[in-house]
Amino acid sequence: MTPAPELVINGSATISGAPLFAPLTLTLGAGRWTCLLGGSGVGKTTILRLIAGLETGAEFIGQITASDGHSVQDRVAYMAQDDLLLPWATVAQNVLLGARLRRQKPDLNRRDRLIERMHLQGHMNKKPGELSGGQRQRVALARTLMEDRPIVLLDEPFSALDARTRADMQDLAAEALQGRTVLLVTHDPGEAARLGQAIVVMTQDGITPCRPPRALAPRKVDDLETLETQGALLRLLREDAA
Question: pTM value?
Answer without folding.
Answer: 0.93
